Inverse folding.
């Protein structure tokens, strides 16, 4: 596996759409766990528009994010590389001072996605696409390297706050209306709902009353940027989260209707996924960035395209697969050595998808997942093994009773980690200062602790 540096090649004969270049819209929804959507079996009405989209699209049962936090997972989605390879996953200095509202001395810094890395957007740009990025997450700023390949890249806010899903959709439709004539478009939109803090509009709150009986957290267990009404009930916060999902879904309904009215719906490629999930005491915590259980890394993947018959594919894929897969839509062969694979055959039902999926908090903990088994380890003394078929909630660690399987999966995982680090050997470690304005946004979102 290489670092993914280099120039992609064009192979028009391999295009899924022949010689055409369809418009492509990629939507990433922040902190959206798959099992809170109706199309994945959730019983609450969080996602009527996404559920309707699913009936016209391919739904992947098990799509796995490569990290439980935005920066690393989105860098993997864009580059097709694991976090240990692309190295865009850390902050180099403590944020303790900023929690008190002041920054003294030099500003904190964050790592930057290497400008030499090939990205999904650069693949589209190289194929002649007009590339537009509409972002709402402060860790995905242009200054941090995430605009690579986008001719137009906007960080959207409405003054002091991040832009809502409604505002992002309105801007996206406006950009579609004013795009350059005669060129296909690649449009990426990142929605912050349902990321914490959970503040859904009143119009949807009533749809999701907290379940009973309450699931009480201990004092101090709920992060202060999430806490509302002094409640310790995980069900209360989960109900607000569901309201945020519904709010994002309503905005997507506006987008889908707008695409239909413009005559684009049946001709474009539309992908909806998420960067990571969210936890509500599933394994003793809240929010994300803590563990590698499925509530954190199992994300939705919905793909609608003219050449895809609607179906539910009972396969496993990874976020790193999207870059090489969508590059092929544009007629581009990505550089050799990517961790991701072209999953178009799996979307068509002609292959079984990925045999295993990988996720990590680099340098801390790693995960290897098949459809049946899940292994989590620090590659030292801590090992967890879950039989997903019998224990989908990952509550019973069977590593002590499955010592040979644990040994085999540990060896496989160690090999994957070593390969990922080797692939990143030539990736440059770059740093950029974070402005006070961005720091305040990161604090409000719980990134600054």
């Amino acid at each position: 596996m290489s670092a993914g540096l280099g120039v992609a090649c064009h192979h028009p004969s391999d295009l899924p759409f022949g010689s055409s270049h369809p418009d492509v819209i990629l939507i990433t929804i922040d902190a959206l766990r798959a099992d809170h959507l109706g199309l994945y079996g959730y019983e609450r009405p969080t996602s009527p528009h996404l559920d309707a989209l699913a009936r016209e699209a391919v739904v992947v049962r098990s799509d796995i994010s490569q990290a439980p936090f935005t920066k690393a997972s989105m860098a993997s989605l864009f580059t097709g590389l694991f976090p240990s390879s692309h190295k865009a996953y850390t902050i180099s200095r403590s944020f303790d001072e900023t929690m008190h509202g002041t920054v003294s001395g030099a500003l904190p810094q964050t790592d930057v996605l290497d400008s030499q890395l090939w990205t999904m957007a650069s693949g589209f740009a190289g194929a002649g696409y007009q590339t537009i990025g509409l972002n709402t997450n402060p860790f995905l700023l242009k200054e941090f390297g995430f605009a690579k390949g986008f001719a137009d890249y906007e960080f959207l806010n409405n003054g002091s706050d991040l832009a809502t899903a409604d505002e992002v959709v309105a801007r996206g439709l406006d950009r579609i209306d004013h795009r350059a004539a005669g060129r296909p478009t690649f449009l990426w939109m990142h929605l912050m709902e349902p990321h914490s803090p959970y503040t859904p509009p009143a119009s949807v709150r009533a749809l999701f009353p907290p379940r009973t009986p309450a699931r009480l957290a201990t004092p101090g267990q709920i992060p202060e940027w999430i806490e509302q009404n002094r409640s310790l009930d995980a069900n209360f916060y989960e109900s607000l989260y569901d309201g945020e999902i519904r709010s994002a879904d309503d905005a997507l309904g506006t987008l889908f209707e707008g695409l239909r009215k413009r005559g684009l719906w049946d001709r474009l490629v539309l992908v909806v996924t998420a960067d990571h999930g969210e936890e509500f005491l599933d394994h003793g915590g809240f929010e994300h960035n803590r563990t590698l259980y499925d509530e954190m890394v199992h994300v939705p993947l919905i793909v609608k395209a003219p050449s895809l018959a609607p179906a539910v594919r009972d396969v496993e894929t990874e976020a790193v697969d999207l870059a090489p897969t969508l590059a092929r839509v544009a007629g581009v062969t990505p550089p050799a050595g990517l961790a991701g694979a072209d999953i178009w055959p799996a979307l068509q039902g002609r292959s079984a998808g990925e045999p295993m999926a990988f996720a990590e908090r680099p340098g801390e903990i790693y995960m290897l997942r098949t459809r049946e088994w899940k292994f989590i380890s620090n590659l030292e003394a801590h090992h967890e093994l879950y039989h997903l078929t019998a224990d989908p909630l990952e509550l019973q660690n069977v590593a002590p009773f499955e010592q040979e399987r644990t040994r085999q999966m540990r060896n496989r995982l160690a090999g994957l980690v070593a390969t990922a680090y080797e692939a990143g050997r030539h990736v440059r470690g770059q740093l950029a200062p974070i402005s006070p304005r961005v720091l305040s946004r990161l604090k409000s979102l719980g990134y600054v602790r």
Observations:
- The radius of gyration is 21 Å.
